Amino acid sequence: MSRRAVLWIAFAVVHVGVAVLGFVLPNQPMGDVTNVYEPWSTQALEGRGIVGITEPWVYPQLALLPMVLAHAFAWISGYLVAWAILVTLCDALAFAMLIGRARSTGRWIGGWYWLVFIAALGPVGMYRLDGITVPLALAGSLWFVGRPWLGSVLLGAATWIKVWPAALLAAALIAVRRRLAVLGGAAVLSAAIIAVVIVAGGAANLFGFVTDQADRGLQLEAPVSAFYLWRAVAGIQGSFIYYDQDLLTFQVTGPEVDPLIALMTPVLVVAVTAVAALGAYKAWRGATFASLYPNLALGLVLAFIVFNKVGSPQYLTWIVAPIVVGLVIDRRGWWKPAVLGLVAAGLTFWVYPGMYAGLLRAEAWPAAVLTLRNAVLAAMLVWIVVRLVRVPEHHRAGLPSRLA
To answer: Of 144, 194, 239, 317, which residue is most buried, by most CB within 10 angstroms?
Structure first.
């Protein structure tokens, strides 16, 4: 049996296994699909209002598209199964592009890594919008060298579904020499989406997802929330975990929490800008796409996670695309962050959905595992910044026609 066939068999096993785990594990790992995706999309299909158009929404407007598309498979066994099928089909398209004929060792290893990561993270990676954006982000990243316009369009679409792929677009604008193509693809797509939203009467809600994020409190899983989480674990008066009815998330609170909430958005901007500036300096000094892009992309994504006041478990999916690209290009140089990524994914799975009920009760052991997970992410960010500093400069101007 060819290794390509083995990869596809493993792809099927992993996706079916993770899909089934969503039905058997505790703490509602599929909650977003049934509680919000299905009602939002059903409301739109029945003409009772369109989120992001007729009313404010937490997501960019294109996020509604996959929610609606999933209904095409609902006849099989309901909306939950339909969503799993849609995510699996998106993954399959990106997976086929990634491994090709499985003759390249780098692509073969990248394919295996992605499958192991999906299994390690569990159902939260499938039953969230992020499960749609990851294959788009991976395919777009792989296309940046030979087809930067197409890569930009895919990343632009992913960004209008969930904001995080903007980090990969920023990395590409810095690292890819055909910057006008990268900028043009995303700009044309964005202009088209904006025009459609305005014509549909949604101008007032066009960027509602931005203001909504800025107003959020400290989510329970975010690294910055550790101080208040451990105060709650210790039973210190005034610090506790609560459920936000508007945002449908668990958050923490305590003394002086409001100034910290206000501070986190500027801190996030500064951190992301600093990583981008380091990447821009390396690009100016002649660093190649192959040496710069995966490092810079992972650095920006990790900055988005580590300094974010929102820390949903599915955010871990964001790191897999730049790691896979790094493995495709330089598998020997990327094994350390790849291993750390799997550790972070496994710890996330352990906390959610595994011990989430205990975490909500402010028990010490789940809090310790979550804190360790966040420490691993912080260590990865430090590691990637060091790698960016060490990216070779003054390399030849030519780019490879294809990734290894």
So the answer is: 144
